[in-house]
Write a structure and sequence with these properties.
Structural class: alpha+beta
CATH topology of the domain at 42-135: Immunoglobulin-like
Number of strands: 10
Distance between the termini: 130 Å
Largest sheet: 6 strands, mixed
CATH architecture of the domain at 42-135: Sandwich
Shape: rod-shaped
Length: about 150
Amino acid sequence: MKRNRQILITMIVAIFSLAALLSGIRPAAAQPEQPAIPPNPQNYFGRVSINGASVPLDTVVSAWCTGGPEVSDGVLFYNSETWYGLDVPGDDPGTQVKDGCAAGETVNFRIGAVPADQTGTWVAGGQNDNFHLTATVDIKIYLPLARKP
């Protein structure tokens, strides 16, 4: 009786294993891992000026988070003002390198070589219209000394 019971249990386990194999059910460890999806970039858009004046059209505006890549673009002229637009990427969790910003990180901006007075906070898929960038530069003019003849 005991032997018949063991044979019956073995046959049931074999039938369930065969049914699982034929139905395509795989153990969790055998399933391939899904690749991570990078987050949507955060958009910044607005006027750009230094010392209250529009910047030249060949000025480059850039943004970055600590340790991530710098993204940059030129400015455009609209209605007698200069404007910029940037998509700041998010960090792709599927890579080993930091290739963008993480949620809550500080976004730094530069107008040409001058740091902007503003910073942002990165949010996946965020839209920041009218995020105006300004910078203040101390301008000192030195006049040459002239001698009287």
